[in-house]
Write a structure and sequence with these properties.
This protein is of the alpha/beta class and 246 residues long. 48% of the residues lie in helices and 11% in strands.
Length: 246
């Protein structure tokens, strides 16, 4: 049995914890009771990067993300994942310099969309994720249409993520707001919705979402375990080619 070691580079603790527990549970499904690939984790406080995010200072953010990747590499990780969608804005810029390959969260999500035959995709996340190129580019490469919430809803979603969800605060009024936003996306033609922030799955799930959900955190964690136990070894690319491990 091939078991590559997984490195989880956390940016926020709520989403990072969800990623870890999901990976362990997927390990049990594939390997049996009490088993999963070795998982090594780095948890540099997100607070060290928050001002930099607001000021678009990617140098500071890349320093902390690279430090996290180095930590899991030095602990023995064969590859890394980062359950923070927004962090991929910076990871895409530094991927050529990282010491171990990684799995890109948007690649995992797009594979799931394609496997279900959906074409029009809603997206929820931080303002940087909803307005940036992480998913816009990935979906475009796969001939998929992206639908995002209206500007005022995007701002409120961003506030709820950082002021509540990242701090473990889950208000019913905020849950209802997310449900209403998803309903709007459905009216605009979205066939599914990406939960493109590690914390959103803590309040939105298959039971309360008006659309089928793409839980980026759990999808990434499961794919990491599946790749870890596969016979595929990525050595030539910094982003792992997932088509070789299916």
């Amino acid at each position: 049995m091939t078991n590559k070691k997984i490195g989880i580079v956390m940016h926020s603790y709520e989403g990072g914890a969800l990623c870890y527990t999901t990976a362990c549970k997927r390990g049990v499904e594939l390997l049996g009771p009490h088993m999963h690939p070795t998982i090594l984790m780095s948890s540099i406080p997100m607070g060290l990067s928050m001002e930099a995010w607001e000021n678009d200072d990617y140098n500071v953010i890349s320093f902390h993300l690279m430090e996290g990747i180095q930590q899991v590499k030095q602990s023995g990780a064969d590859f890394f994942i980062c359950p923070d969608n927004t962090a991929h804005i910076v990871l895409e810029k530094i991927i050529g310099d990282v010491p171990i390959p990684g799995i890109h969260i948007a690649d995992v999500v797009c594979n799931e969309i394609l496997s279900n035959g959906w074409q029009k995709v809603g997206l929820l996340g931080t303002k940087w994720t909803m307005e940036g190129e992480i998913y816009a580019s990935a979906l475009k490469r796969n001939w998929l249409e992206l639908i995002t919430p209206e500007p005022t809803d995007r701002l409120k979603i961003n506030d709820i993520i950082f002021e509540e969800l990242c701090n473990g605060i889950f208000k019913e009024v905020s849950i209802n707001f997310f449900i209403n936003v998803i309903t709007k996306l459905k009216r605009e033609g979205a066939e599914c919705v990406i939960l493109g922030c590690t914390e959103i799955p803590l309040i939105i799930n298959t039971n309360n979402s008006p659309l089928p959900i793409l839980d980026s955190t759990r999808l990434l964690a499961k794919k990491a375990v599946e790749y870890a136990v596969s016979n595929t070894h990525e050595t030539s690319k910094q982003w792992i080619d997932l088509s070789k491990s299916n």
